Amino acid sequence: MPGRIQKFFMLVGLLKYGIVLSLLLIYLPLTALDGVPGHDIAGNMFVELSWRGVLFAMMFLLAVAWSSMFTEGLIVNGGENRFDKNAPLYRSLKTIKEQQPQDKHIPHWADLFFAIPVTGWKFLLFTILLAGPSFVIIVWHANRPILALFMALLAFVIDYVFLILLCTPAALLADAEPTR
Fold first, then answer.
1. How far apart are CA 128 and CA 135, in angstroms?
2. Average per-residue pLDDT in the chain?
3. I want to staple 42 with a disulfide (CB 3.0 to 4.6 A). Which of 3, 31, 113, 149 is the partner?
4. What is the model's pTM?
């Protein structure tokens, strides 16, 4: 089995596109600040938005952040199958916890952190990390900041309800353990 450094770089290899997208989600709203590289190109995208603009911008940003979170979790979950074709395509959290760290191709902590199901703390961490800078910049630079704050929170509620409604049929129809 690979060593710690090799496991870390295997994890980076699995998540390379998610890392780039996440960094872009974090960096893009910061271009609204003077002196930040890219200010001349994308700086006005997140400033002086009306209440409708805040609502739609935050809805799309949250949808992208949460999609990235779930996609990265699924990539890490199926990552063991990439290195061992006999491994199951999907591993439950119980299976991940029971598997010995030395038998894995990626770090054990990453396997647990990105595991599906997403816990409330992981959901909150990804939301704050990926959508937090956008939230602050959009609300801070809005035409009416107080109204923008409420619209951003409404966007969170709308997206969350939509996410639950979107996942409900799959959760009701799914077996307890997916099979190969």
1. 9
2. 87
3. 31
4. 0.82
